[in-house]
Structure formats: C-alpha cells, structure tokens
Amino acid sequence: MPPLAILGIGLAAAGTAVGVTGQIKAGNAAERAGEFNANVATEAATIKEEQQRMADRRTLASARATVGTSGVEMTGSPLDVMAESARQAEMNALIIRRGGMLDAYSARVAGKNAKTASRFGAASTLLTGAAGITRQIAQLVNTSGKSLSVPINPNDPRAKSSVYG
User: Fold this and answer.
1) Domain positions in the chain
2) Of the four, 6, 16, 81, 153, which is 20 to 30 A from 112 by CA?
3) Mean pLDDT for each consecutive 10-residue tract of the chain (165 residues)?
C-alpha cells in the first residue's frame, strides 16, 4: 500500500476517534450540567419556600395581633379564618417546594437525554467513519497495481471508480 494512502486511512481513523470522544465528553458534560441545574433549582426553591413561610408567619401574627387588640375572642369564625389562613400559608409553601422539585427533575432529565443523544451521535460517527475507512481500503485493494490518481471531475472519462456511481 502506498504510504499516502495509509496516512489518509490513519487520519480518517483518528478523526473518527476524536469525533466519538468529543461527543461522549459533551454528553457527560451535559449530564453534569443537568445535575448542577437540578441542585440550583432545589436550593432556590428551598430559599423561596422559607421566605414564603416567614412572610406568612408575619401576616398571621399581624392578623392575630389585630384580632387581639380589637377585643374579639379567638373562637368561632375568627378562629376558623385564622386556621384557614394557616392552611393556605402552608399550601403556598408546599406549592413552591413542588415547583422546585419539578424544575430539578426537568433539569436532570434534560441532562440524561443529552447524554443519551451524545451516545447515539458517537455511535453514528463511529459507523460513518468505519464505513468511510472501509471504502478507502476497498478502493486501494481494487486499484492495486493501477495508478491511484482519482479525477476530481466525475464527468472525466478516467472516472471509472464506483465512487462516482
């Protein structure tokens, strides 16, 4: 085999390997980014939930103080209103927590999906590269003993290779 042909095949193999490695690394990075984003979403929701709880505690305390200074007893309807306000305050906090959990889940799934897509891309690159290298080797085997010059113009009468169909 001519040295330039061997060099070309080697470069094609190296290019394929670099492409496959790059896609795998990109997928791993995307998965790590998804996990990082999930942690950020969880942390942000935790902070927001705690801020909501503090605001609701202040509101409820203010309402209790208002009722207490008005001389109304905390029984019957005023008590029911306060209990309902406390339940609603807790629901607000839980809704914020759930939103954070959903955001975190979404980020993790996006990272895992990107990693899976990169694996398929790497497999595709590997198969395409292997097919190209196989085609180059087949051309070398078919042209052994003949001139290895391949015309650039497919309409050139010297173009008898199957490459030009």
Assistant:
1) 3-144
2) 16
3) 82 93 96 97 97 94 85 78 92 96 97 96 94 88 62 61 50
